Amino acid sequence: MVGLLDWSVLHALSWLTAGVVFGSVILPFLYRRSAAFLDRHENLFVGVIFGWALGLGPPVGGFFGALVPVIVGLPVTSLEGAVLGLLVGPLAAAVEGLMITSAICLVVWGVTGQRRDRE
Q: Which residue has the higher pLDDT, 94 or 16?
C-alpha cells in the first residue's frame, strides 16, 4: 500500500523490510517482556495497556498512518506516515483500551456493587 500511495518501489521495500523486522524480532521480544512483567504484577489495566498497545496498535497505526498523508494532504510521504503511525498507534490503542475497560468496570461496579478490576 505504501508503494502504491507513494509510487515508489524503494518505499514499498523499506516498509516491507521494517514490517518483517518489527514483526519477527521486535514484537516477539516485547510480548515476552510484557508477559514476564504481567506474571509478576497482575493487574487488569496493565494487561489491557500491553494487550491493546502490542496487539492492536502497530498494524492499525501503520495502516492509518500510511493513509493520513493521502486523505488529509499532509506534506509527508506515506512511508513517513506509516512509520509515525507505527510509533503513535500503540499509544492511541492503549489509551482507547483503558477508556473502554474503565467504562466497563464502572458499569459492572454500578450494577453489581463489586469491583472486578482487582481480581
A: 94
CA–CA separation, 90 and 84 (whole Å): 11
Q: What is the 3-state secondary structure (H, E, C) of 27-85?
A: HHHHHHHHHHHHHHCCCHHHHHHHHHHHHHHHHHHHHHHHHHHHHHCCCCCHHHHHHHH
- Between vectors from CA 76 to CA 93 and to CA 87, what angle results, nearest 5°? 25
* Beta carbons of 19 and 1 less than 8 angstroms apart: no
DSSP string over 20-31: HHIIIIIHHHHH
Is the distance from CB of 62 to CB of 86 less than 8 angstroms?
A: yes
Backbone angles phi, psi at 8, to 5 degrees: -140, 120
Structure confidence at residue 2 (pLDDT) = 61
Task: Kindly report the pTM of this predicted structure.
Answer: 0.74
